[in-house]
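## retry 2 of 3
previous attempt timed out at serialization; input unchanged, resubmitting
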Amino acid sequence: MPKITFLSNNKTILNDIVINAKSGETILDVALKNNINIEHACEKSCACSTCHCIVIKGFHTLSNMTEKEEDLLDKAWGLNQYSRLGCQAKIGDQEVTVEIPYYTVNYNKPM
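## retry succeeded, writing output
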């Protein structure tokens, strides 16, 4: 069973959290099942970029990125070459470490 580590961002995740995950689960589903509040404005339908995460370790072990995900990632705040949408990135059979950016592009979020 692969482990997924959510790194502290000193705002929404105060300490690193290590969780056992099942292969085939998305990063977002693992987070939500373990009370890690990752924003997901489109309710996991790959229609926004609010669940953007940066994969620090294990990027190449995740499911392949679709063209739709690539297009949406262009709108993410803090995008880099290891960015994925948490609702689309399925865990393989190896450990993964992710960072959840504190900011998103959700303009509808109450301040």
